Input
Amino acid sequence: MAAPSHKATYTEGSVFGHVSNLAITSAIGMFAIMIVDLVDMFFISILGQPSLAAAVGFAGLGLFLGASITIGVSISVSTLVAQALGEDEEEQARRYATHGLLYSLCWTIPITILTLWYAEELLSLIGASGETLQLAITYFRIVGASLPILGFAFVATSLLRAVGAAKLSMWSTIIGGAVNAVVDPLLIFGVGLGLTGAAIASVISRITVAAIALYSVAAKHGLIIKPVWSALLGDFKALSSIALPSILTNLSAPISSAFATAQMARFGTDAVAAASVVGRLTPVAFAGLYGLSSAVGPVASQNMGAGNYHRVRETLTGSAKFVVLYVVPVTLLMFFAQDTLIKIFSLQDEAAELLRFYATFIVGSYLLFGLQLSANPVFTALRHPGFSTLSNVVRDLLFAIPLIFLLSAEFGARGVLAGQALANALAGVLAFATAIWMSGKVERGEALGPEWLRVRLHRERHVVPGIQHRG
Output
C-alpha cells in the first residue's frame, strides 16, 4: 500500500488560525498529562506525609533533566520533517522521521543508564536528604527507567504535529492521561503501593502515549520506512545540528530549577512541598503556553522551507496575540482560586502563604515568559537554533541564579519564586525582540549574521537534502 501523501498544510490560510489550532490541541493533550500529575500530588497529599510531596518534587526535577533532552531531540526531528514537507520532499521527510526515532535511542539509553546509576548523587546534589532522599530515589528510578519510551512518545507526537495531525497527537496524550488517572488511585490506594504506585502509573501512561502516537505515525501517516543505512550518519548529522543546540537550550532550565529547589530546601520541608505543588500547578494552568511553544515550530518551519518568510514573522506576532488572550484570564482565575487550591492540597502556614504569593504576584509574569516560548521555536525555524540556546542560558544562568540568590537572601522562600519570575520576564522581552528583528531581516532578504556564518549556512542548505534554500 502506498504511503499517504502529505501537503504542507501551514503554508496557506490564516497563520494565527494555524497557530491557535495547534496550540489548543497541543495544550489539551498536555493538560491531560499535567492534570494527572496534579492529581498525583493530591492523592499523595491525602497520605498526610509532607516528605512524600517533597520527594516527588525532588524526583520530578531529576526526571526533568532526561525529559529536557528528549524534547530537544523531538524538536530537531519535527523541524527537519516540517521543513522537508515545506519543500515538497516527502521521501526525505519520511527518512528524517524514521532515523529520528533511532536517533532518540542514541540519547535516551545512555542517559537512562547514567541517571539510574547515579540517582542518589543527583538527587542529593539538588537538596534531597534523609527519608525524603530515599523516597525520591525510589520514585526516580521507576519512572526514569522509561526514558527511552518517553523519547519515542515525544518524537512521535511532535511528528504528528509536523504533518498537521494535531488532533491525533492530542488524543494520544489524552488517552495516556486517562489511563494514568484510572491506574493511579488503584495502585496508590487499592493495592496500597503509595508513592511506588504513583511511579508505576506514570510509566504505564508513558507506554500508552508512545504506543498510540507511534501507531498513528506509522500506520495512518506512513512516516516510518525501512532505515536507509547509507544515509543514516548524514541524517544523524543533520539532526544533531538542531538537536545539540535544542538540548543545550532545554538543559539550562533544570540547572536553574535545581538551584531554586536547593535554595527552597533551606526553608524547610513545607517550603519544598509548596514548591512541588506550584511545580505541578503551573503546567496545568499554563498548558496553553507550552502547547503554543510546540505549535510555533511546525508552522514557522513549513513556511521557512517554502520560502514564505513573511508568514514566519506572522507566526511570531500571531503567537504573541495568543499569549495575551490566554494568560490574562488564567491569571485572574488563579488569583480568585487561591483559597480553594490551598484547601485542596492541605497546605498550611508557610506553605499556604507561598501559594498565595504565587497566585497573587507570580502568575502574571507568564505574560512575558510566553513571549520567549514563542520566540525560541522561531529561532530554530530560522536555522539559528543557537539563539534559542543563548536565550535560555541568559534566562536560567545569567538572570535566574543571581536573582534567586539575592532575592531569597532578602525575602526568604518568596524570593525564590520572585527570582524565577523576574528572570522569565526579562528573558521573554529580550528573546521576542530579537526574534522580531531576525524574522524582519529574513523577510527583507538580509543576512542574519557575519559573513562566515552566512556562508556556512548557505553551504548546508545545498548539501543536506530537505533543507535547501528556496524563495
Q: What stands out?
A: The chain has a mean pLDDT of 83. DSSP finds 18 helices and no strands in the chain. Residues 16-463 form one domain.
